[in-house]
Amino acid sequence: MKARRNKKQVPSFRKLLKTSKVKLENKLKNKQFKQQSTLKKYRKEQRKLRQAVRDAVSKKPVPLEDPKEKRPGKRIEREEEEEEEALPLDMMDEDDLQLMKDLGQRASFLTRDLSSSEPIHAKKRKHERVIDKYEKIPRTLQTAPEKELIHLLPIKDKSGIIPQTREKPVIDSNQDEEDQEETEPEEEIIEEPIRELTLEEHLIERKKKLQEKKMHIAALASAIISDPESNIKKLKELRSMLMEQDPDVAVTVRKLVTVSLMELFKDITPSYKIRPLTEAEKSTKVMLDITTTQNKLKIRKETQKLREFEEGLVSQYKFYLENLEQMVKDWKQRKLKKSNVVSLKAYKGLAEVAVKSLCELLVALPHFNFHNNIIVLIVPLMNDVSKSMLKTFLCLRIKEVEVKKDTEDINKPKKFMTFKEKRKSLSRMQRKWKKAEEKLERELREAEASESTEKKLKLHTETLNIVFVTYFRILKKAQRSPLLPAVLEGLAKFAHLINVEFFDDLLVVLHSLIESGDLSYQESLHCVQTAFHILSGQGDVLNIDPMKFYTHLYKTLFKLHAGATNEGVEIVLQCLDVMLTKRRKQVSQQRALAFIKRLCTLALHVLPNSSIGILATNRILMHTFPKTDLLLDNESQGSGVFLPELEEPEYCNAQNTALWELHALRRHYHPIVQRFAAHLIAGAPSEGSEALKPELSRR
């Protein structure tokens, strides 16, 4: 049979194209219309549901009643069973009863008032679908706020167009009021203002924190010192405290940790430089014993432990030095960091502690690793504007310099024999032994790294020349500079090493400074001390009369501060030692008597420690000038009357007075002052009952 042809004709492409466009447009319009209608219905239903919920919440709950009252018997039986099973009200707590009442008031739409005059089945058919949908919604005692939907662009799929929506939060005025009522008492209870600590409470809290940090630092340091090899990792823990973040104790803790680490490294660092391990040493495996069957070198477990300790020590020492360098950089830059833990004012204190630690490590560990790096870091800091930088010259340990270039050193460097000299005087075997001996001697010299006396003197001379050029430039061009006290103190220390050619000019400058009156009392004492140091050394050959310096010291002795301990007393005693004791042959008896009398008067005014030093100086002067014992006698030794207000020690007639001050000092409240006064009254004997004990006589 022939296949039955399809009666429906196949449309042409053009016709199909036209009809497809029209159909698609119609379909799209229909879908949009349906979508809009469904959305309108959905919004109406949502509004009605929200209104029903608001009505149910606002009305008082009324118990449900069956209007037709069907099956009264079963209802009565059911109520009796529920009453039997229910808990009596007299057995319920008041809180539970109140909770049940509240829940009853907040019940859902089921507690609707059905006793109203409105008909129950009014408009039932109209709202039938709405009620059915409403019944399907799950019941909740607390109704959540409804969220409004925001309609987005639809998505087209194989199945059709899918509408897209997004929830929009709906602000419910009633719910907001209830939330405010509920949250108000909570805010009053929870958000209490934090009480600020008083200054005293804050200090107590800071002291407590600081004590805890100190104990932690002490525990770590004790563990490291007790067993450095086992507890080397605790160095890292201690070093991490350099970054303390608590602003109350950050600066103090960082300073304590810096000093503690410095002392630890001084104690646990070995007396040799630790070199880095080679690749062969790193690849060597740990063995418990050295094997005799193999010729390869293997290390013991103890050696490996020592190497680990050395590696850890060097790495932590390096990190510690980097931390100190960073402290100094922070102070130089003077920029506040983001953490804002340390203030700008505290940077200077931290930098000072860091520099002191670096200097201590350089002095204590000059052989250890990174000593050159420490020098490179410290030396540029000498350009700081601080006036005390010039006092670093006082720490130079220079005692000798090259006085004459013509003189030859006593310790000449040993000269080795040349090959020709050996060939003439020695045999072949002797030459061989001599060569080995010279080689060994060279190696020993290199190992000891001992410098010859000639090199030391040359280096000291060059260094001191630079120091004196700095001092003389300040004396010549900046006599009113705040650097002058450090210059005068340095000249007083190195005056015996100054070249003789500068003596005359230097003494003139010193005297002019004293007469100008611009110097303080301590600075003028330094001028006097410098002048006599010059005269006590190479200045003996010069014909210079220092009487003006004696007069200045004699008339300014009473300017010493009597109510406080100061450095002036120590400088005065040093000047008296140089002026009177060491120059005993150039000092007259009248001058010695005048100074002893004035010193005894001064001992009545100053503090006990200064008084003891002055009386000890008088004891030395009485031994140096034996004829001064006439001051212990009441009878006068010549014509004239003692003039204590006269400023010239040579013409004050001190031989016509007595040391009555010693009798007053004998009743002094300090026992050692009493002992010295009684000793001087007895004539300062070296033996007998009035002699001083050895510990006092050596002062």
Q: What features would you describe in this structure?
A:
This protein has 699 residues and is mostly helical. Among the domains are: 200-400, no CATH class; 460-696, Leucine-rich Repeat Variant, CATH 1.25.10. Helix content is 56%, strand content 2%. It has 25 helices and two strands. The protein has helices at residues 13-58, 72-85, 94-105, 128-136, 173-190, 199-226, 234-240, 250-268, 279-283, 301-333, 344-364, 371-378, 419-425, 428-448, 453-477, 484-494, 503-516, 521-536, 547-556, 568-581, 589-603, 608-624, 661-665, 671-681, 694-697, and strands at residues 148-156, 161-168. A two-stranded antiparallel ribbon has the order 1-2. It is elongated, with a radius of gyration of 52 Å. The termini are far apart. Residues 1-6, 64-72, 78-89, 107-124, 182-189, 285-297 and 405-413 have low confidence and may be disordered.
What global shape is seen? Answer: elongated
- Rg over CA atoms, rounded to whole Å, is 52 Å
DSSP strand content: under 5%
Low-confidence stretches: 1-6, 64-72, 78-89, 107-124, 182-189, 285-297, 405-413
Distance between the termini: 150 Å
**Mean pLDDT over all positions:** 76
- The CATH topology assignment of the domain at 460-696 is Leucine-rich Repeat Variant
The major β-sheet equals: 2 strands, antiparallel
Task: Determine the number of helices (DSSP H or I, runs of at least 4 residues).
Answer: 25
* Proper CATH architecture of the domain at 460-696: Alpha Horseshoe
User: At the first level of CATH, what is the class of the domain at 460-696?
Assistant: Mainly Alpha
- Number of DSSP-assigned strands: 2
- How are the strands of the largest sheet arranged? 1-2
Helix content: 55-70%
Which structural class matches the secondary elements? mainly alpha
GO molecular function, one term: chromatin binding
Domain CCAAT-binding factor: 524-677
Organism: Camelus dromedarius (Dromedary)
Coiled coil: 423-457
